[in-house]
Amino acid sequence: MDQPILNKVFLLGNVTEEPTLRYVPSGTAVATFELIVSQYERIEKDNPDQKNIFRIIVWKDLARWCHDQIRMGALVFVEGHIQVRTYPDHAGQSRTEYEIVAEKVTLLGREKRNNPKSSPADIHSEREENRS
């Protein structure tokens, strides 16, 4: 019997750099940025917070919105799923990257670049059928 499968991620953190926007050959917009997330350790008071950095991938209208509205240091909430990519590095060794493909991005803190005409909650990324 097949077991149900769930691949869902919720992250709250600060953007480490302004999103980069590019277009794939089909003309679809894709934006990338990194999100730093603290993992609080409550066991020992002297233990500093562990920080994790996640690469966020955003597609289509949401990609353009992120590029136009999100600044470095902004507090954002990301909802999406994990994507695993394997590729050979320059030395021919196999490398694996774990990325978060965002389906929703909500800007929670710091000023936006412009006054948005639509809320990020109204813009959802659709999965790209033919990603290059």
Describe this structure in words.
- By secondary structure, the chain is mainly beta.
- The chain has a domain at 9-60 and 67-99: Nucleic acid-binding proteins (OB fold (Dihydrolipoamide Acetyltransferase, E2P)), CATH 2.40.50.140.
- It is 8% helix and 45% strand.
- The protein has one helix spanning 60-69; strands spanning 9-15, 20-23, 29-39, 50-59, 75-88, 94-107.
- Strand 5 (75-88) and strand 6 (94-107) form a beta hairpin.
- The relative contact order is 0.24.
Q: Summarize this, please?
A:
The chain has 132 residues and is mostly beta strands. The chain is built from 1 helix and 6 strands; from the N terminus they run ββββαββ. It has a domain of 85 residues: Nucleic acid-binding proteins (OB fold (Dihydrolipoamide Acetyltransferase, E2P), Beta Barrel), CATH 2.40.50.
CATH superfamily membership of the domain at 9-60 and 67-99: Nucleic acid-binding proteins
Cα(first) to Cα(last) distance is: 34 Å
pLDDT < 50 runs, ≥5 residues: 117-132
User: Beta-strand level of the residues, as a percent range?
Assistant: over 45%
Backbone CA Rg: 16 Å
The count of DSSP E runs of length 2 or more, i.e. the number of strands, is 6
Class by SSE composition:
mainly beta
Keywords:
6 strands; OB fold (Dihydrolipoamide Acetyltransferase, E2P); globular; 132 residues; 5-stranded mixed β-barrel; 8% helix; 45% strand; mainly beta; disordered C terminus
